[in-house]
Write a structure and sequence with these properties.
heterodimer, A: about 260 residues, 11 helices, about 85% helix, about 0% strand, B: about 260 residues, alpha/beta, 10-stranded mixed sheet, globular
Chain lengths: ~260, ~260
Amino acid sequence: MSAPLSRLALRVAQILALPVFLIVLWWYLSRANTSLFVPTPGTIAGVFGEVWTPERLRTDALPSVLRLLAGFSLAGVLGIALGVLIGSSPRLRAFSEPVLEFFRAIPPPVLVPVLILFAGIDSTMKVAVIISGCIWPILLNTVEGVRAVDPVLADTCRSYGIRGGTRLRTLVLRSASPQIMAGLRQALSIAIILMVISEMFAASSGLGFTIVQFQRGFAIPEMWTGIVLLGLLGFGLAMVFGVVERRVLSWYLGLRRAARGSN
Amino acid sequence: MLDVTGLAKVYDADGRKVEAVRDLTFTLAAGELVCLVGPSGCGKTTLLKCISGLMTPTAGTVTLAGRQVTGPPADMAVVFQEYGRSLFPWMTVRQNVELPLKEKKLPKARRGELVDEALSAVGLADADGRYPWQLSGGMQQRVAIARAIAYEPKVLLMDEPFAAVDAQTRADLEDLIRTVWHKFGVTILFVTHDIDEAVYLGQRVIVLSNSPTIVQDDLTVDLPDERDQLTTRADPRFTELRAKVYAEIQAAKRGTVPVGS
């Protein structure tokens, strides 16, 4: 085997080792177990294909994922826009910060019943729940990032007449991007939680709804397949996010490596 | 080219007035290279910020090519001391140098020419695709200098640009400034706390007093135009000038004017 190929094989083995071990452990512990609630991995794998047919993926999983993405991206746009606004003005920040901290401290699931009153039980409500929960880390991190723009870099922009949109794109957003990305990462996991919770309250479709339905109908292996699917979804999204993050922050990672190297 | 008249800056620190700059008047002719030197904490940075339009003076005026400076002027470029913080770390060397030219709305071909010329003038023609943090401190400051000259300013302000680089790099960069100045014919105001550097580089050395700052002395450096780290620094006239500026600075620290000036 050539060197890069064996490195790749090693990397794959590294990634898969722990999951394989955990599945084997689960299988070992559940093999003699007659409890209805703890099926073996084999049972779950067998049921998985039956439950998550393309048809069901389209009617239950896809709308969930679309709502998740809609809520997450709207929260991103709103959070970054408001964060830039608030972060650029010390007065506005002092004025709004206690209120923002208050809203962030409210656990978003309690908003579900409230939002049902305003927005009904359709997709609007679910997207609103996701936005209301995951906007805060994005907003507050953006405020922090924008506030911390280097004064020397800001003076450089001023003396070269770089202002307005160019300043926003080349200075403010870029220098705040490490914090913004950290906020988005937190927001993504909150968004997945809220996607499920919003569907558990009042819904007729969606991943959260399906899992609760199975549980109520004592379709335990089926319920487990839903949980596994959620895990896979979260894992997939985190992977995609990681790829985007490495691209957006490649300068930052390089800068940090360089700073560590010289010290 | 650059006239500073009666410049004063008083800071308001928690209701207490701090007078940083009292009364500064001096003039730079077009194409001159003048060094400003003064004791540490004499308000050099305040002065530079007022001249570059980044700060509004309490009194007095700064006039650049006949126009009063009220904000950062379009025909002035500044090179800051903190090279590591004045370049955009998310942009390559070329993008850093090109950005102000884009904002000036120069056509692409012209931008390319200016960037290439500036980068080869500072000896970084091959580094245009690299990021600032991949370069040494001295090279980063070269990029900042390239960015300033590509901007085609009438006046180039330099705020202790070599204070944070090692001695050998510093000597190279000093010679680079002389070369760039000859090549591009730009007017340079170079602020430093290093007496040797001021005498080696300048055609004139303006000595500032302790804060609140006034002009303590304005010396003409009558050294030959061709300067060289070895011969110029060994020149008896260099030593004389250096001693004179040193005495001025010491006197400035004590708040007196030396005898005989």
